[in-house]
Amino acid sequence: QGLKPIVSTESPALIFGTTTKLASDLPATDSFLSKNKVPDLQKLFQKADGLPVHLKRGVPDKLLYRTTMALTIGGTIYCLVALYMASQPRNQ
């Protein structure tokens, strides 16, 4: 008799009928028609101008940074106020 495999050696049937595409089947000029911006951004971010990386792109970065800081500080104050109000006993 010998040893028989417990698990079937046949591959299971496909659950979804879609097939996968290989990378070689895709067209070469699909969605990469624009100019590569990575070298320009590398020059910008590696410039030694004393600014942190998250503020290197100017006004939009400063606006996002300040908005994030304001929301963080506001949320912290709101949480502390809510905690203080929850710790006080209610008047009957």
TrEMBL record:
Protein name, UniProt field: Cytochrome c oxidase subunit 7A2-like, mitochondrial
A single Gene Ontology CC term: respiratory chain complex IV
Matches recorded under Gene3D superfamilies: Cytochrome c oxidase, subunit VIIa
Protein keywords: Membrane, Mitochondrion, Mitochondrion inner membrane, Transit peptide, Transmembrane, Transmembrane helix
Protein's cellular compartments: Mitochondrion inner membrane
Annotated source species: Haliaeetus albicilla (White-tailed sea-eagle)
Family to which this protein belongs: Belongs to the cytochrome c oxidase VIIa family.
Principal subcellular localisation of the protein: mitochondrion
TM spans (from-to): 63-86
GO biological process, one term: regulation of oxidative phosphorylation
Membrane topology (UniProt): Single-pass membrane protein
Lineage: Eukaryota, Metazoa, Chordata, Craniata, Vertebrata
